[in-house]
Specification:
This is Transcription elongation factor 1 homolog. One of its GO terms (biological process) is transcription elongation by RNA polymerase II. By secondary structure, the protein is of the alpha+beta class. It has one helix and four strands, in the order ββββα. It has a four-stranded antiparallel beta sheet with strand order 1-2-3-4, covered by helices on one side. A hairpin with a 5-residue loop joins strand 3 and strand 4. 10% of the residues are buried.
């Protein structure tokens, strides 16, 4: 009589890399000086630069991460710059 085949072990789960929580400032270009804070009680996310004191606030939800707040800040800066650039033309 033969031996029963054992079930193969499932492959180990791959770990997700941690996302950044500090970023470079779009105004003063210092690296790692923008810190993002999320206040889930008031549903507000804030990104602020420790060097030039610039800040940005936005509404958040349960899935919001610090990178989302920073990305919204960058998008808003680009939107404002394109609107100002269109006025000059």
């Amino acid at each position: 009589m033969g031996k029963r085949k054992s079930a193969a072990k499932p492959p180990p789960k791959k770990r997700m890399d941690k996302l950044d929580t500090v970023f470079s400032c779009p105004f003063c270009n210092h690296g790692s000086c923008v810190e993002c804070r999320i206040d889930m009680k008031n549903l507000i996310g804030e990104a602020s630069c420790r060097i030039c004191q610039e800040n940005f606030s936005t509404t958040v939800n349960a899935l919001t991460e610090p990178i989302d707040i920073y990305s919204e800040w960058i998008d808003e800066c680009e939107r404002v710059n394109t609107v100002e650039g269109d006025d000059d033309a």
